[in-house]
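Figure-free illustration: sequence to structure, shown twice.
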Amino acid sequence: MSTKNPHWGTTLDAFLAEDGTRETTKAEAINRVVAWQLTREMERQGITKAALAKKMHTSRAQLDRILKAKGNITIETLQRAAALVGRELRLDLV
């Protein structure tokens, strides 16, 4: 006999809030989306990782961490990368 899942019918936000991981999960998801968008824009413009790293005055390994959304990436770093591919990073309080 199976037991009823207590989370059945709840939203993902409610589940993550109850689990205590909502904010961390949301921040990681945002980082991944921005990294994906940067990668797409680089591909669209034909910008290599080495070229963008050079423009950012950083190493290719550091740029790889940014594009893989690994570690604690600052908003300033994301803004700089976005500007170098001709885009703007926007943050909103909702």
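We now fold a second protein in the same way, so the two outputs can be compared directly.
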Amino acid sequence: MYDSLPSDWKVTRLRDVAKIGAGDPAPQGKHYFEEGTYPFVRTQDVGRAKRSRNFCDTKDKVNDMAVRENRLRLWPEGTILIPKSGASTLLNNRVRLSKPAYVSSHLATVVPHDKVSGLFLYYKLCQLDARRLLRNPGYPSLSLSDLKSVRVSVPSPDNQISIARTLNRVDQSIERTEDVIAQTGQLRDALLHKLLTRGIPGHHTEWKEISGIGTVPTIWQDVLIGDIAEIITGTTPSRANSEYYGGPFPWVKPSDLKGYYVRKSDESLTSKGAFFAKYVPKDSVLVSCIGTIGKIAIAKRPLFFNQQINACKPNDRVLPSFLYWSLFYKAAYMQSIASQTAVPILNKREFSKIRIGLPTLTEQTQISKVLSSIIDYIEKMEICLTGAKRLRDSLLQELLTGH
């Protein structure tokens, strides 16, 4: 692979362009973290950070006593951190940059030399396939000597800087988009609470208390989900019969409930399989009630679904969109009333007794339009985010290999 590199690229060992080491054992004792002011980075901090956020976030901070008594070393900003033990972070190729911080001994530290761009080397190590370097399959670990011997290809200093800047701009764009999506989601949640308890602003002056709901406009009805929708629990055709699966009929599981609408499914049924499955028409509202409680989506087309889902066929008293938002608002409540077993379950009987405040169809339409406009914006931003991440992956491959 190195034979086709451009003429200004050279292949070297990681030890020749950076100082490789490891952090220090974590101080033992809560008193070392009381009123701490200095970040202490652990393996989970590297694993927790989002991919686009190149610098890891830390939760723990140590104090002067911890630094002094444990002889902790302060690592400079731009130190590249790579987990050297622990399967999940290693196998997910987690690599992060650090602000000035103290570092756990479970992390390898890579401090770039002056002759190489630290940001370029960081992106280069993001492509490191840690699986090739792991020892001890029972407890995967990364040897520092193996890490030092990793071969890396580097271009001229000017080219390193140019490549790193390009990739960093894409990462900053991804980060901004993620922030916009998060902030818009917070706006949605705030509006959801106001609209589903106070109604459209300026429309109401009189209020009443409803147990399990709170204060709502006086003219709103107090209803149970079972009053405004037919509830159907799904089924799973026998897995033992291969003739039931792989046909033209969508068969939805909780993992398919990913957005406002469910348009497609990972699995499908044949006509034989569909005979043993439960069906709902378009505009039914699907809610996961076993395992992961409270994932919700509206059926964009007629479909079949499994036993982990309760489907609601709205009657003429409620709009599908308003029922969706009412159940979305009740997600945390659904989780709280589910059976607290190894696999949480919200049974059909308890699900049907969930109470909501029901406005007129006209106000339902108005409320749904406001909330759906926010969902449309979030979905557009998520499409942009997906595109930016694909661009990042493409640029990583293209720019960091010289092709």
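Summary for the second example: The chain has three domains: 2-155, 156-204+360-403, 221-358.
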